Description:
The chain has 155 residues and is α+β, with helices and mostly antiparallel strands. Helix content is 26%, strand content 35%.
Amino acid sequence: MRASTLRWGMNLWPPFLFAGIRITAISEDFRHARVRMRQHWFNRNYVGTHFGGSLFAMTDPFWMLLTMRSLGRGYMVWDQAAEIRFVKPGRGTVEASFDLGDDVLEAMRTATADGGKHLQWFDTRVHDADGDVVATVRKQVYVRRKQAANGGAGA
Length: 155
């Protein structure tokens, strides 16, 4: 699937669509993504700031998706753990970016070369239009090479 097709589909995915979350970019090599959420009546909390669940949701799938697409079919990849820290009240439009570097991918390949698992933490800052951080999100991604039918590591 092309990155543009994935972006289009995810923008129509109900958890994103109904929270006002919009994916503004996914690079064709699946190494970079950018997401934005405008504040609306339906994603505000009781005190008039962004709902924390929406701030988390806007960051949730990206590290797993980017890792999965970048490593290829020879790897099992899924989310293992997550945490969010709210830094300041989020108002207006907020954004987050994801950049998966060659060094991180190489470390994952090296760590799983013998068939073992690797747990990789990723940090994401959600910032407002002024560039102020409103939340930090940590995601831990589980990575393991798939086993081939003959018992060896898959490609």
